[in-house]
């Protein structure tokens, strides 16, 4: 049997050739002749090479503008049918995949990742994802990857199989790959998700694709890929869910808000609320969007969160808060909460539109005491891409239409936004 160990200098291309020479793969049919265990190969050749290789045959989204490949890379640990769980849902382009190295350390549960893949980024995206799958066991075990391709910028020659094989041939040893990924040297040509205005970033479509694999009765935590939670949040929320019988209550309409912050440096997954507050007092941590859009976050009532202390070490609800425009909280929610409106792309109103609908649909917002999210780096008004204001104005007009539509969608609701 063939072996391939993490940190080995054997390249993945060499492993493929070895597999062919040992009869493990049939060069014509690209199929296993004897199975590999997860310990003996860190890339599932059959799963990858037997994908639908015809781009045109992939299903399209409801707008007809995107091709969607669900479960491009399924996680090694798949949930048992009927199992109660909470899944972190996130999204990015190839240039932000390096955040997964940290995210899997902070969130100890399943992750559903939707990646946007314009044609020029196909090989770099495949290369990074396969490298993560082969070299990071936490990624391999717990991250399920979905891909979204814009039809306006399809893969060259509408070909997927050739680019996938090319990405397989690009793999080197794990130490080199992880070093390059950490330095963001494997990324595509753009620095930000929103930087390429010629290919608008469909953030809300990506969020919905990430949610699509999660059962409606389970819970989701939709966050940006560069935001890290405290390392106990997954297990502590499952404990809270058990105490509150969340998985047995039919259609519970509460979302559990996680306080969001920014930090000048990375925080350890083991960081506690006490340590966070000490850094806040020193000025190296501040509430999220404190400089960029304080009105978007202040309704959390950070001072109340700061002073709330519960004698029990278990995760608790600190307080319930009425939603007020334009609050954009991050929260753990049942997956039956409203989907994201996919008309919103690029910057502006994409998250708040879903928050607004969640409020009008009758969900209550409860704030968790010891749970927190941290974005690495302070956000400033000057730190956004050049087209941000134009995109924001365009999405503001969509948001006005969206709010009018909600009145007809929820005629019995007395809430508004």
TrEMBL record:
Subcellular location as annotated: Golgi apparatus membrane
An example molecular function term from Gene Ontology annotations: glucuronosyltransferase activity
Pfam families in UniProt: Glyco_transf_49 (PF13896)
Pathway where it operates: Protein modification; protein glycosylation
InterPro entries associated with the record: B4GAT1
Cofactor: Mn(2+)
Keyword Transmembrane: yes
A GO BP annotation: protein O-linked glycosylation via mannose
Enzymatic reactions: 3-O-[beta-D-Xyl-(1->4)-Rib-ol-P-Rib-ol-P-3-beta-D-GalNAc-(1->3)-beta-D-GlcNAc-(1->4)-(O-6-P-alpha-D-Man)]-Thr-[protein] + UDP-alpha-D-glucuronate = 3-O-[beta-D-GlcA-(1->3)-beta-D-Xyl-(1->4)-Rib-ol-P-Rib-ol-P-3-beta-D-GalNAc-(1->3)-beta-D-GlcNAc-(1->4)-(O-6-P-alpha-D-Man)]-Thr-[protein] + UDP + H(+)
Domain of life: Eukaryota
GO CC terms in record: Golgi membrane
Keyword DNA damage in annotation: no
Keywords noted in UniProt: Glycoprotein, Glycosyltransferase, Golgi apparatus, Manganese, Membrane, Metal-binding, Signal-anchor, Transferase, Transmembrane, Transmembrane helix
Membrane association type: Single-pass type II membrane protein
Family note: Belongs to the glycosyltransferase 49 family.
Official protein name in the record: Beta-1,4-glucuronyltransferase 1
Organism: Desmophyllum pertusum
């Amino acid at each position: 049997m063939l072996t391939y160990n993490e940190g080995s200098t054997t390249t993945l291309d060499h492993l493929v050739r070895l597999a062919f020479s040992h009869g493990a793969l049939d060069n014509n049919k690209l199929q296993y002749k004897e199975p590999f265990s997860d310990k003996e190969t860190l890339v599932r050749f059959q799963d990858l090479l037997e994908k639908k290789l015809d781009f045109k045959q992939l299903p399209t989204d409801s707008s007809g503008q995107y091709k969607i490949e669900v479960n491009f890379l399924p996680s090694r640990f798949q949930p048992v049918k009927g199992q109660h769980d909470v899944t972190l849902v996130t999204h990015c382009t190839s240039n932000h995949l390096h955040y997964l190295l940290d995210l899997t350390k902070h969130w100890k549960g399943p992750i559903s990742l939707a990646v946007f893949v314009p044609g020029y980024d196909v090989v770099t995206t495949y290369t990074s994802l396969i490298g993560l799958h082969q070299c990071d066991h936490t990624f391999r075990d717990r991250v399920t990857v979905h891909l979204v391709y814009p039809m306006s910028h399809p893969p060259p020659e509408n070909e997927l199989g050739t680019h996938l094989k090319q990405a397989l041939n690009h793999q080197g040893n794990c130490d080199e790959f992880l070093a390059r990924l950490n330095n963001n040297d494997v990324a595509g040509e753009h620095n930000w998700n929103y930087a390429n205005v010629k290919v608008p970033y469909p953030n809300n479509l990506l969020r919905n694709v990430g949610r699509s694999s999660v059962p409606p009765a389970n819970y989701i935590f939709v966050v940006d890929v560069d935001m890290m939670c405290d390392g106990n949040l997954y297990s502590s929320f499952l404990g809270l869910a058990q105490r509150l019988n969340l998985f047995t209550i039919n259609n519970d309409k509460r979302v559990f808000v996680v306080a969001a912050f920014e930090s000048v440096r990375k925080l350890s997954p083991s960081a506690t609320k006490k340590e966070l507050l000490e850094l806040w007092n020193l000025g190296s941590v501040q509430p999220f969007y404190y400089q960029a859009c304080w009105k978007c976050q202040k309704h959390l009532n950070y001072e109340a969160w700061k002073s709330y202390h519960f004698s029990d070490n278990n995760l608790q609800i600190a307080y319930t808060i009425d939603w007020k425009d334009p609050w954009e909280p991050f929260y753990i929610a049942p997956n039956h909460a409203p989907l994201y409106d996919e008309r919103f792309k690029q910057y502006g109103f994409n998250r708040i539109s879903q928050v607004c609908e969640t409020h009008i649909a009758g969900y209550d917002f409860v704030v968790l005491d010891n749970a927190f999210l941290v974005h690495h780096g302070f956000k400033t008004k000057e730190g956004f891409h050049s087209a941000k204001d134009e995109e924001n104005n365009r999405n503001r007009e969509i948001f006005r239409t969206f709010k009018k539509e909600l009145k007809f969608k929820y005629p019995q609701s007395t809430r508004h936004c």
